[in-house]
Input
Amino acid sequence: MSPFVLSYYILATVLLLLAVIFVFVPTPPHPGLRNYRISLRLFALSYLTLMVYCLIKSHYSPALLSIPFLIAAPLEAVFLAFSHVILIHPQAATRTTVCKNLLPLVLFILLEGLQSLLSEHVTLKHYEQLLFLNNGYTPGQATDVLLRELWLLAYAILIFHYGRMYFREEKRYKILAGDYSSENFIVNLPIARASFICALCVGVTTLLITFSLSETFSICLNYLILVLYVAMALLYLQYPKVFLRIYSILFEKQDRADAPDYAVSQSRWREIRLAIVCDGLYRRKGITIDDVALHFSMNRTMVSHMVNAHEKMNFNAFINHCRIDEARELIARRPEQSFAEIADTVGYSEQSNFARQFRLVTGMTPSQYRYSLLLSQSL
Output
């Protein structure tokens, strides 16, 4: 068995194993995880689609714009895109929406099938054949090549469209999460972003594969796709660990509340702010706006209105500013205290997150800030 064929069989085998894992992986019996279980099925379909393509492709030498690729790649893109969108906006990835996005692929398959009945299919083995220069194509063959070129362009546009769609939904999610949670891991949801970036890299890599006429280059790209798919699987399977912490953001409807009268809310906000700052509520790790609302027996949406109106920032940013303000005082008063201890004192569960937020608020790292204080005192 040649290295070229072996690379496809290895990739197909791993994809099959991962697809089986997605189908049978146990998930907590939480009603909100229904959408996650649906996304796992979409993931499995994506992996199986590529597996079938690999088994077909292993029997042929590299060729440009092969029909199996032009069917498998867009199908894979639809499944991967919506399986990720479900993680951050379940309502946007309905069965109807997925089916609508599959319609262009169905149209291409019908047109290609019709064309194959009317004319001979062209196997593209040279780049010059894509340019229609001295190839002696019959009108039917020229139509075949042109149809595949247009569909390849559509696939490239599809990758851009799904990237734009995901990051638009991610922006929406971050706004909701920033109004809800103090935890930056919850607001940024890095596992979803990292997994989707891997999916985008798969899309770009498959584009490169269809333009490769070198078996060696194709082998390298196959193993790169293998790494990306394994990485996606490992990231994606972590989602249930954080799901229960973001359930309120994704599924629970916020209590409806009209924006309170500004003067009344300002007076009430002073009371709430005093408790958050002076009583140290911000030091509670993982504090959410639900915790604050419950503490004051208020509507969480009303509390969110107050934070945004009077602090000119969302709940997440407000809590981080409170924490960093205290951290600056501790750095000044206790130069011997470690940054890990300071981070824990002000409410951060990870020192790396503390350092990142400190720099975001002050423009300096904690070390630079401490050094600037020591330097000013020595002058």
Summary: The domain at 3-250 is CATH 1.20.1070 (Rhopdopsin 7-helix transmembrane proteins). The chain has 16 helices and no strands. The chain has two domains: 3-250, 262-378.
